[in-house]
Amino acid sequence: xxxxxxxxxxxxxxxxxxxxxxxxxxxxxxxxxxxxxxxxxxxxxxxxxxxxxxxxxxxxxxxxxxxxxxxxxxxxxxxxxxxxxxxxxxxxxxxxxxxxxxxxxxxxxxxxxxxxxxxxxxxxxxxxxxxxxxxxxxxxxxxxxxxxxxxxxxxxxxxxxxxxxxxxxxxxxxxxxxxxxxxxxxxxxxxxxxxxxxxxxxxxxxxxxxxxxxxxxxxxxxxxxxxxxxxxxxxxxxxxxxxxxxxxxxxxxxxxxxxxxxxxxxx
Length: 267
Fold this sequence. Notes:
Elements lengths: L1 H22 L8 H15 L3 H18 L14 H16 L4 H45 L4 H38 L3 H26 L3 H16 L5 H25 L1
């Protein structure tokens, strides 16, 4: 009974969060940095460990937010469904691993996060299917408007939102209902060394997100060189942080005025 309740709650949360992505409201709760901690808060409260749920949600939210920070639903671009991936990552990992010891619990969290990336790509395919349905609804509404049936506009809006909600609700319910037990079984089969490997992998995953963020921010070769030098300076001189800090500020003072002048010259 508890598993059914968890599956329904996650499905309801997934439906609401997915509505926020494009179909309605758009108050940013669909962003991973919000959706994942929110899921952790709710699931953690239901399973009696709210703090651990929020901690997992923050970790997942930060990693997925940075990983898919460039993927925006603009125009015809359909990005991976980061909202559902965030909800399902936390739900799968926490529901499967909250009863295990540290190593196996963290392994559940990591596997749930990795699986959620694939689920986000599958969610993109479902979003494309929903968009095709919405296109058909839009054509029907336009035809009805030509016949002076303006009530079809309300029906079209409600239908689009309903289809989006049902898609996310069913998808999240099936994933949690059928996915938690296999994840538990998979984790139980792991040896101590394998579980430790997933713990190490979890620590490396944020580097993927930061690499995506860095690739967005550093477009010029000089910027990349200064960034690498700063990282090396902070790594090699941890006891005297003033030296790399002064060097970084000096580099910015010297470099950025030259960069702004070169841009003005080109204009």
